């Protein structure tokens, strides 16, 4: 492709709202065009890169028996009502009515549609297992779209769904998709970290997120440097350290009220009482599916909303309004577990009766000192509802402290089980070899395609621009012709014709200065740049620059093809030594 005909319009500077490297360079490099908040058009360079990502996805899923389908983005609302997701999902799900007043939604995912399809066609054990996948547009009305393609309102997603005889069959298949994901990301040039994750509104018996460690990631996850344990911070489990002994051993002073006018925050209370965080109880009020719940943790921890919702089996979990607390006789800012009879209280496992605490007194400007769990309030319901912290001991091996890292979610896999095939949902069964009906068991697996493109750039860039892995680069080679002398033009066109039979070439034939051409070549991140100039033409040489490493070498034209073959072989991402999950024979 000649640059002059390629519809590439690079920018010297990105718009002010672009902050992350991928957002900046995708705009500056003429890969995307912003239409509105969270809505982007893919320009030719971006489209080519995305199509290569799709090809890798298709190759890996086809290799494990995946069958590609295409399902509508517009879904009848009655399907989503059957599973309850129509009511469970908030404003992110776009709902509307057609001209006949029939209700529809714009699909965020396609569990309902694909299960409805399976219900019609999966009738016998001979039809199982089967995995169907698509690469389709998804709509999600994000409240705060940000970071370019990392968080958008309309995007392309690869969503796959597997159907099985039973949970054992799902467990046997799961490593295949897990390992396919590792290969997909590796072939795109990314080292992903699989972590244990919460299934959230998707439901199911287990899931994994595949994370790319990144300073611009919105997610946090923990890793153990000793045993490799990894999990989302909201799901991760660590060993909670005991409190430092305080006061006289074996002496439990009586609980007493202490006036604390205007003292509400933990920091203010620590100064007021001259005590550290671990000796306070932090009580947070939530409304879980319409019911008030108090979550109590040791104040040196934070409540994990994900863990709490999982423990409560709550679909909707929000902070309780002050009005709700007031109507219940509670006071925001002075909440505590003592004397509460009519409200459900969940205490974290970090709370023990080994020593007293300081807690809110449920009265304005009043706290309680020497509160002893088990004596002054009952530990009726305990669960691990605290977020793990940097430095907590790993619960898996007990040998090392957990480290917290930021990351971008590249993909998510779920063992859905029978959430969508249950009798009170889509009621999907098959007949076994004895003619008896059995419940179909499901898995589902997603990858955001444009997000994957942005993630690659977050990983592969420098100050000058993008550094594409050869597997997904819009072109393999850019030929930068410096000067319009006939001999220079002839040499550039000769290379363009010769190399174009085996490599994808972007030939910069513009009448621009050498500085503009070389800066644009770095900006768009094509893996290999070939420079042709009058000086080089005189010696019969070509300058080669490898974009990812910055290495520059001079190569005789006669040796160019062999040299490039060796370079591209070295640039090919490896899929060896990945943390594969063991597959059953």
Can you give a write-up of this model?
This protein has 585 residues and is an alpha+beta fold. Helices cover 25% and strands 29% of the residues. The strands form 9 sheets. Strands 3, 7, 8, 9, 10, 11, 12, 23 and 26 form a 9-stranded mixed beta sheet that branches. The chain has a 5-stranded mixed beta sheet with strand order 17-15-16-18-21. Strand 19 and strand 20 form a beta hairpin. The longest helix has 21 residues. The mean pLDDT is 93.
Condensed summary:
This protein has 585 residues and is α+β, with helices and mostly antiparallel strands. It is built from 14 helices and 33 strands.
Distance between the termini: 47 Å
CATH superfamily of the largest domain: Bira Bifunctional Protein, Domain 2
The structural class is alpha+beta
Mean pLDDT: 93
Number of structurally distinct domains: 3
Which fold name is given in CATH as the topology of the largest domain? BirA Bifunctional Protein, domain 2
What's the helical proportion of residues?
Answer: 25-40%
**Rg from alpha-carbon coordinates:** 29 Å
Principal-axis shape equals: globular
CATH C-level label of the largest domain: Alpha Beta
Total strands: the figure is 33
Give start-end ranges of low-pLDDT stretches: none
The CATH architecture term of the largest domain is 2-Layer Sandwich
Largest sheet: 9 strands, mixed
């Amino acid at each position: 492709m000649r640059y002059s005909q390629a519809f590439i319009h690079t920018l010297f500077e990105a718009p002010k709202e672009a902050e992350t490297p991928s957002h900046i360079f995708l705009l500056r490099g003429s890969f995307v065009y912003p239409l509105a908040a969270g809505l982007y058009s893919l320009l030719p360079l971006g489209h080519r890169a995305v199509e290569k990502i799709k090809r890798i996805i298709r190759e890996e899923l086809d290799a494990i028996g995946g069958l590609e389908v295409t399902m509508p983005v517009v879904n009848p609302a009655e399907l989503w009502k059957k599973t309850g997701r129509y009511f469970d999902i908030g404003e992110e799900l776009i709902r509307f009515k057609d001209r006949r007043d029939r209700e529809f939604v714009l699909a965020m995912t396609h569990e309902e549609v694909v299960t409805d399809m399976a219900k019609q066609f999966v009738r016998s054990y001979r039809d199982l297992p089967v995995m169907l996948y698509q690469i389709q547009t998804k709509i999600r009305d994000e409240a705060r779209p940000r970071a370019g393609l990392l968080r958008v309102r309309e995007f392309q997603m690869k969503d796959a769904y597997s159907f099985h005889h039973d949970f054992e069959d799902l467990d046997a298949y799961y490593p295949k998709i897990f390992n396919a994901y590792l290969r997909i990301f590796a072939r795109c040039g990314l080292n992903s970290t699989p972590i244990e994750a919460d299934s959230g509104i998707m439901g199911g018996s287990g899931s994994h997120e595949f994370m790319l460690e990144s300073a611009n990631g919105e997610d946090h996850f923990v890793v153990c440097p000793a045993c490799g344990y990894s999990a989302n911070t909201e799901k991760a489990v660590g060993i909670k350290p005991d409190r430092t002994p305080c006061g006289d051993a074996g002496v439990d002073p009586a609980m007493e009220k202490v006036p604390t006018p205007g003292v509400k925050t933990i920091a203010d209370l620590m100064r007021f009482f001259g005590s550290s965080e671990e000796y306070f109880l932090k009580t947070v009020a939530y409304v879980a599916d319409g019911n008030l719940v108090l979550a109590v943790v040791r104040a040196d921890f934070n409540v994990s909303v994900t863990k709490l919702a999982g423990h409560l089996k709550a679909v909707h979990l929000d902070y309780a309004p002050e009005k709700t607390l007031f109507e219940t006789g509670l006071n925001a800012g002075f909440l505590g577990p003592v004397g509460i009879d009519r409200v459900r209280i969940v205490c974290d496992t970090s709370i023990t009766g080994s020593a007293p605490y300081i807690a809110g007194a449920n009265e304005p400007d009043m706290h309680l000192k020497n509160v002893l769990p088990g004596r002054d309030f009952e530990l009726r319901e305990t669960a691990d509802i605290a977020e793990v912290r940097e430095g907590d001991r790993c619960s898996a091996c007990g040998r090392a402290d957990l480290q917290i890292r930021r990351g971008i979610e590249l993909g998510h896999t779920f063992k859905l089980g029978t959430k969508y095939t249950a009798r009170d949902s889509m009621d999907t069964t098959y007949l076994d070899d004895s003619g008896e009906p059995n419940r179909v068991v499901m898995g589902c697996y997603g990858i955001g395609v444009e997000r994957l493109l942005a993630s690659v750039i977050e990983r592969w860039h420098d100050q000058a621009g993008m550094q594409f892995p050869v597997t997904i680069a819009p072109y393999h080679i850019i030929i930068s012709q410096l000067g319009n002398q006939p001999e220079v033009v002839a040499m550039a066109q000769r290379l363009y014709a010769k190399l174009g039979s085996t490599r994808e070439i972007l030939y910069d034939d513009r009448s621009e200065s050498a500085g503009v051409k070389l800066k644009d070549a770095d900006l768009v991140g094509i893996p290999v740049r070939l420079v042709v100039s009058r000086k080089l033409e005189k010696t019969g040489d070509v300058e080669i620059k490898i974009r990812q490493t910055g290495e520059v070498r001079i190569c005789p034209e006669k040796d160019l093809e062999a040299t490039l073959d060796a370079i591209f072989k070295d640039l090919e991402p490896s899929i060896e030594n990945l943390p594969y999950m063991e597959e059953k024979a």
